[in-house]
Amino acid sequence: MIKVIKLPDLGEGIEDVDISEVQVSAGDTIAVDDILIILESEKATMEIPSEYAGTVKAVHVTAGDTLKPGSPIIDLDVEGLSEAEAEPEPSVDTTPTELPARSAPPTPTHTVLPPSTSAHASPGVRRLARELDIDLSLVPRTGPKGRLTKDDLLNYIKDRLSKGGQPTQPEIDFSAWGPVEEIPLNKIRRLTGERMQAAWQTVPHVTQFDRADITELEALRQSMKTTWAESGVRITLLPFLMKAVALLLKDYPDVNSSLTSTGKALILKKYIHLGIAVDTPEGLMVPVIRDVDQKDVVQLSRELMDVSERARSKKLKPDEFQGATFTISSLGGIGGTWFSPIVNPPQVAILGVSRASVQPVWDSKKAAFIPRTILP
Ligand code: CAO
Hints:
Blueprint lengths: L1 E5 L10 E6 L6 E2 L4 E6 L4 E5 L4 E6 L6 E2 L4 E6 L5 H4 L33 E2 L1 H9 L15 E2 L1 H14 L23 H16 L9 E2 L1 H15 L8 H14 L5 E3 L6 E3 L5 E3 L1 E3 L2 E3 L2 E2 L7 H16 L13 E5 L19 E4 L3 E7 L4 E8 L1
Parallel strand pairs: 9-10, 14-18, 18-19
Antiparallel strand pairs: 1-8, 2-4, 2-7, 3-6, 4-5, 6-8, 11-21, 12-13, 14-17, 15-16, 20-21
Helix pairs in contact: 6-7
The protein binds oxidized coenzyme A (CAO).
Oxidized coenzyme A (CAO) binds next to β15, α7 and β18.
């Protein structure tokens, strides 16, 4: 029986596609999943495999042709094909607009079959799997004759998404090696873990380490600290760093930006709101101090004291965590020399500051080491 293999619906509103290669000729014997043609759309190159095995009787296309969904590609002589099966298949909608409920039961007439390396799936399903980099041999199948359906794929995606934030760690009985205690994580720590893991997986991280000589700055800070102590304002190094970062972000606006959702443009923000990582007994919080470029060091010190105290007493409002354009994580009060903080998306960069200390620095004019305050 002759089956006319047609170009399926490719989804995404693709109406015309150009053929870059035809991989079969009349007389060829082909197997299921052998590639018939390779298409080139504006968006991607895609292979169209055969859903049937058989002998190619006629090829209706040549390289360079432009095809529409439903156009015939080849006539295939398929052994044992019924008249009903010889009818053209309805086109496949590959648009994953709505994912079915994760644990939606399979239709009662079909059993769930384990994943298989040779599962039969339509070109639309294969294409979607390719685009999302999903190995179809891992997906359980519920379709007739062990076929892998679009819903099988969507259920698998939904399942993976729901597990995405969870580290996959097997259940281990640690008490086998000594006494243990299990402490439930609070919401802040769980969310921090999930967000940091997502950030680590989605943002390519590169760290640049450097030292800043802050000898004069530290002298100024010490004098301001004494002056403002009577008014109850604690002048630490951080407000100076915030001010320095605000000035630099004006010079380097690419760093005060976010990618658009398509990843094809940068949104440069004309405001400078800094997220400040604050260590609290409940976990890490990142309140935002707004318009840092328009405030002086004393005002920034007051605001920093205010937000860090309210973060520690859990009195910050939700909008005080939003809108940061860049983050500073300062471990200077704690210690350490270098560390790599994790970028907080949709921001594109973060500054990590360690503890300043007095170091011998070579002065070539004096041909001597002199003590300088160096901030890593
Ligand atoms: N070098 C040397 N000394 C430093 C310093 C540095 N880089 N940074 C702070 N100090 C000093 C301060 O000046 C202060 O000393 P004095 O009282 O003598 O002035 C002391 O260390 C304690 O400072 P602090 O940490 O209380 O205050 P701060 O303004 O520097 O920081 C805050 C405020 C809220 C950012 C900080 O308390 C905090 O929570 N840091 C932790 C951030 C964090 O956990 N990040 C990890 C996330 S991973 O990205």
